[in-house]
Amino acid sequence: MTTPHPGAAQPGAAPAETARPEAAAGPEGGPAELLDGPDRWGVIATAAGAFRLRPVRLPADLPLLTAWMNDPAVAAFWELDGPPETTERHLRPQLTGDGRSVPCVGTLGGRPMSYWEIYRADLDPLALHYPARPYDIGIHLLLGPAESRGRGLGAVLLRALTDRILRTRPDCTRVVAEPDVRNAASVAAFRRAGFHHAADLDLPDKRAALMIRDRDRPAPR
Hints:
By secondary structure, this protein is of the alpha+beta class. It is built from five helices and eight strands, in the order ββαααβββαβαββ. It has an eight-stranded mixed sheet.
């Protein structure tokens, strides 16, 4: 599990220092599609089964996501436990924003089992804390059901999804994450998925391990 991205700005907003031209209106006059729509990345074959992402749907997904956020193992790092309104306040700015952060439900074999945030790290407050490159993609992840944890599933899904991101987005040269340094299981999952620990970051609400998977640095198998 990783924690949500930090900073004073809401998930849909980025500091002016990190804004880039592609955040402006797209060719049809609406917001540019900053992530190409993670739901369009299709089904991803993994050793654990067929995995795919779909955007969060409100209000339909709210009971499930609220239940996951209230699991003590999740709440310890995400800090979003409480009534459904707490989870909704976290989701809404992303769902109504310009697309630079997309909250998704991950399904395995058609069953919802994880929550993901796929975001443009170079347009996020995180970019004020590390040497961001244009088009860096960031990932936050939690595995919802307790039975999905502790058996290496997170690393399997992270590797498969990162492979797909780097294959389908040629402008993205690396994928980043910033789990809490205390979350040893999350840091280990990213390592097994081919990420390396680049630095520790003092973020506004946590000390984080900056994990990076580079396109030009082959992931160990």
